[in-house]
Write a structure and sequence with these properties.
This protein is 77% helix and 0% strand. By secondary structure, it is mainly alpha-helical.
């Protein structure tokens, strides 16, 4: 019976958990990404959207690891990546990948999901560590296009409101 869920938030969480497990298997087991995907994501067992997002997160994180790891190192004072718990390191990698490459997901959601997954797969102290690192990384990232789009909408709304006030003012003067 396939793993399915009607709740989109739950399916995204499941995708993130699967991506973490695959990343752990890839890193600790020293398997190729193709081998991990082939042995881990059974299309008959996992709902298509869950499978697709999990695969995207896993493959994207693996492909971008040479960019992600130095960024994480900048924000983990007194911690080398290889000394971190493997689960924590991989939760951080996936969350950072999602922050950088999935702007449709709000950063607060990415961080919260990472904390919940860290609590489930690692521990309470890990969640605090992950939160501190991701918060630091987020603050250091340049504004994303989604932030720019929000600002553009705010300016448009303000300009629109100003125009309406000016039009009302002109009408009242004519009377």
């Amino acid at each position: 019976m396939p793993l399915t869920t009607d709740n989109p938030m739950a399916s995204r969480r499941k995708s993130r958990e699967l991506a973490l497990q695959m990343l752990f298997q890839w890193e600790v087991g020293k398997h190729s990404p193709a081998h991990v995907v082939a042995t881990f994501l059974d299309p008959d067992e996992i709902d298509r959207p869950v499978n697709s997002f999990a695969r995207s997160l896993f493959q994207g994180t693996v492909d971008d690891i040479s960019t992600l790891d130095p960024m994480l190192c900048e924000h983990t004072k007194h911690w080398r990546l290889e000394r971190m718990a493997a689960v924590d390191r991989n939760v951080l990698r996936i969350a950072l990948f999602e922050m950088l490459h999935h702007p449709e997901t709000p950063v607060a959601v990415v961080i919260n999901e990472a904390l919940e997954i860290a609590r489930r797969f690692s521990g309470t102290d890990s969640a605090e560590f992950v939160n501190g690192v991701l918060d630091g990384v987020h603050k250091a990232l340049p504004a994303t296009s989604t932030t720019a789009e929000v600002r553009t909408r705010e300016v448009t709304v303000k300009n629109s409101s100003s125009k309406k006030r000016n039009q009302r003012s002109k009408k009242s003067r004519k009377l």
